[in-house]
Amino acid sequence: MVAVDTSAGRQGRRSVVVTGATGGAGAATALRLAGGGFDVIGTARSQEKADALVAAAAARGRPLKTVVLDVADPSSCAEAMGEVARMTGGGVWAVVNNAGVPQAGSLEDVSDEQTRHLLEVNLLGAMRICRLALPQMRLRGEGRIVNVSSGLGRVPWPLGGWYSASKHALSALTHCLRVEMAHAGVRVSLVEPGAFATAMLDRAVDDLVAADRGGAAGYDRSRALFGAVNARVPTPEPIARTIEKALTSPRPRARYTVGFDARLLVPLHAMSPLWLSDWVKHTVSGLPRKAPARAGVVKELA
Predict the structure, then answer these.
(1) Does residue 292 lie within any of the structural domains?
(2) Is residue 299 part of a domain?
């Protein structure tokens, strides 16, 4: 029989890593968890952003630690999670994979390089962090993983196809991980937010500006739509509250859908026939449903 030192488990019982913790839902989550008694380690892509997060937490009287981490870089992930293990005396009890990028644009206009970066951040990076954290969770006999997906993972949206695809894939992998890790005492949940006031929609607008080939169909309407939505949606606090619920509930749910728009659109999309879903997306995005008539084409008579 192998003796297991449980002191690290007790020390790290309330420790949690939050990726992408320097803005939007990540910052809201890190600050909320720090105020709720968790030992929070927020990740940042630079020391300057890490310092700003620590200062924001200190201003609220909430102690918080940070590590510099680029989830798209395997070496950075291994180094940062090694540092986390040292900080917690054996590894974190919970992981919140929040880091994400939008990379908006039509599938025709998004390059292979841009796609690879998006998949590294939104999908491979998240699962890499899980893989690095799981051995200590299994040794401890418990742990929590919360992967932040999106309502668009179940409602694919034109000019955001790669983002939807990455979040759909994250949902599938989270499902498999939940089943695979149940026997190890690791509870795995998926959080699917709708639209909230974060930098994500602003970055999506910037992506559309950069990808626009000059009057390409749907771009103007989509930029206006994203901007209008971002001006009206609430702050990301509901996402932070939901993540806290997934971490504190004795029986966390497999999936949490957050926001009125996501709770409405996800089931509607699932129930709607494809022709109706396509019609709505064409109408809202401004993408034409038919090719324009080509001038000068003469129909030959038999």
Answers:
(1) no
(2) no
Give the chain's end-to-end CA distance (angstroms, integer): 89
Per-residue pLDDT tens for 66-89? Answer: 999 999 999 999 999 999 999 999
Tell me which residues are annotated as active site: 163
* CATH number, domain with residue 16: 3.40.50.720
Distance CA 238, CA 240 (A): 5
- Of the candidates 148, 133, 116, the residue with the CA atom closest to the CA atom of residue 246: 148
Q: How far apart are CA 88 and CA 45, in angstroms?
A: 20
In tens, the pLDDT along 213-264 reads 887 889 999 999 999 998 899 999 999 999 999 999 999 999 999 999 999 9
Dihedral over Cα of 30, 253, 165, 123: its sign: positive
Q: Which of 225, 222, 230, 218 is nearest to 289 (CA)?
A: 218
Q: What is the pTM of this model?
A: 0.91
Place of tokens 């600050």: 31
Is residue 186 one of the residues assigned to a domain?
yes
E-strand spans in 102-202? Answer: 143-148, 186-193
